[in-house]
């Protein structure tokens, strides 16, 4: 899940909430949407590969 921050950057959050904090984990912050999408693809590859 990618969200745009107030600073204009894009942050990837985990899809599931962390049971301890009840929030989504921060999986990285990127300056462009393209970079964030590229990294999200890499995350999915390693999770299911």
Characterization of this structure:
The protein has 49 residues and is α+β, with helices and mostly antiparallel strands. The chain has one domain (2-48). Helix content is 33%, strand content 37%. The protein has one helix and three strands, in the order βββα. The chain has one helix spanning 33-48; strands spanning 2-4, 10-17, 24-30. Strands 1-2-3 form a three-stranded antiparallel sheet. A hairpin with a 6-residue loop joins strand 2 (10-17) and strand 3 (24-30).
Keywords:
49 residues, alpha+beta, 3-stranded antiparallel sheet, 1 helix
Taking Cα atoms only, what radius of gyration do you get, to the nearest Å?
A: 11 Å
Mean pLDDT: 95
SSE class: alpha+beta
Order of helical and strand elements: EEEH
- Tally of discrete structural domains: 1
- Report the biggest beta sheet as strand number plus sense, adding barrel if it closes: 3 strands, antiparallel
Strand content: 35-45%
Overall, the morphology is flat
Identify low-pLDDT runs.
none
Amino- and carboxy-terminal Cα gap: 19 Å
The number of helices is 1
Helical content stands at 25-40%
For the secondary structure, the number of strands is 3
**Strands of the biggest beta sheet: in what spatial order?**
1-2-3
